[in-house]
Amino acid sequence: MRTIAAIATPPGRGGIGIVRMSGDESLNILKNIFKTNADIMPRYMHYGHIVYDNEVVDECLACYFKAPKTYTREDMVEIYCHGGYVTSLYIYEILLKLGAVPAEAGEFTKLAFLNGRIDLLEAEAVEGIIDSQTKEEQGLYTKILGGKLSEKLESLIEELLNLIAECEAKIDYPELGDVDDMEDKINFIVERIDQFLQDEKRSNYIREGIKTAIIGRPNVGKSSLLNAITNKERAIVTEIPGTTRDTIEEYISYDGLYLHLIDTAGIRETEEIVESKGIELSHKAAREADIVIVVLDGSESLNKGDIEILESVSDKEKIIVVNKEDKGIELDISRLDRYGDKILIASLKEDRGVRELMQMIKEIFITDIDGEYLSVFNIRHKEALLSARENLYLARRDIDLMPFEIVEVSLRLALDDLYSILGRSGDEDLIDRVFQDFCVGK
Q1: How many CB atoms sit inside 10 A of residue 367's CB?
Q2: Nearest CA-CA partner of 207 in 124, 280, 138
Q3: What is the pLDDT of residue 232?
């Protein structure tokens, strides 16, 4: 069995660099180069020096972890050297010269999965923790790594296994007869899957941000709003209508919210080709958004263009921002009641209304960003759940039409779909795909 090695800390300047190994030869390789006054004991931090070719490479600490109580369930070693790319790389190269081989991306976590320490869902959560952009997202993945989501899926799998057992019993003993209870049980499992799928959208808010499109006519203050929310000059602001020709995207974290902000080109009738393309993107952003912020010029009366924009997002969750209060409000606010009840008077020029706007967004999504719930969190999980649901639909349809042997086939296919989320399908290509985007050293 090979012993793998990798640098576990990012390249660059830092206080500490960590080089790690996993495999049967980990301890022997360490003993060849690590000089210390004490016997190396498992789970003890030892002080010493890395020495190679009779030269001291670095003063460092080292820890040996004895299998199976390790991250990979193999013998492991971690060397804590002074930070900096040169030192870590030098020690890593020495380990390779002494028999270790370079770890592949995600191979340490892959070994943890293959050796049964974690399931595939928990392994993916490790990558999620590393890539998290907010503490809410990090908290979500930490709960998943702790096995809480796996427990929910295991419960669903248990229900399906019981159903398959009942189906086999009906095959062996046709006199059992009535199948109404089986249909009810299939419906129950489908409802559980539907809940997972509904919650997936909520987890998407935490992971990828609440997609927030800022739309309106040219020169009403859309780019000023983006700059005010992000607190930086992200978009060019001028008095010339049509300055923004493309969508501008930013991500911000605010009091538990993770927003994916999209500033769009001003919507108006135009024959200018580039501006027309930008307006098309504006409509697309509004259609795909989780919430739309419609910005109006409060110093003018509501006009045809404003009304068309408001009607184009009539089915969307939205907040209407009446800007330019500093110039005096000429717009008849009562005319906006038919388009929604979330209306905010603001002066972006004088920084009035931005905090109130953020609070309104939070009130809309507060239940959706509750970190206490757990759900699947990537397209692989979603596709597996959709496939399981489809196979359950087939089983339910076939109960009155086909022999129970056919019903059981559909139920087992649904079971395989759920098993694949946890990595029990035995599909090596699937496993390789999951780990190929991990960082080396994890």
Answers
A1: 9
A2: 138
A3: 65
For the record, the structure tokens of 249 come out as: 């995207």
Q: 216 - beta bridge partners?
A: none
Indicate yes or no: pTM above 0.85: no
Please give the angle made by the CA atoms of 189, 191 and 194, to the nearest 5 degrees. 115
Buried b (16+ CB within 10 A) or exposed e, 110-146: bbbbeeebbbbbbbbbbbbbeebebebbbebbbebbe
Residue length, the chain?
Answer: 442
Residues whose CB falls within 8 Å of the CB of residue 264, separated by 6 or more in sequence, listed in order = 213, 214, 215, 222, 244, 247, 278, 281, 282, 285, 286
How far apart (Å, rounded) are the C-alpha atoms in residues 26 and 3? Answer: 7
Task: Provide the sign of the torsion angle of the four alpha carbons 125, 127, 131, 135, taken in this order.
Answer: positive
Q: Residue 351 half-sphere exposure, CB side, CA atoms within 13 Å?
A: 6
pLDDT (tens digit per residue) in 125-158: 998 898 888 887 888 888 888 888 899 999 999 9
Q: How far apart are CA 209 and CA 254, in angstroms?
A: 11
- What are 101's strand-pairing partners? 4
Distance CA 225, CA 230 (A): 9
pLDDT in tens, 208-240: 889 999 998 888 988 889 888 888 654 444 344
**Residue 297 forms beta bridges with which residues?**
323
CA–CA gap between residue 293 and residue 153 (Å, rounded): 37
Q: Write out the two tokens for 141.
A: 């993945």
Find out whether 92 and 120 touch, Cβ atoms under 8 Å: no
Strand partners, 301: none
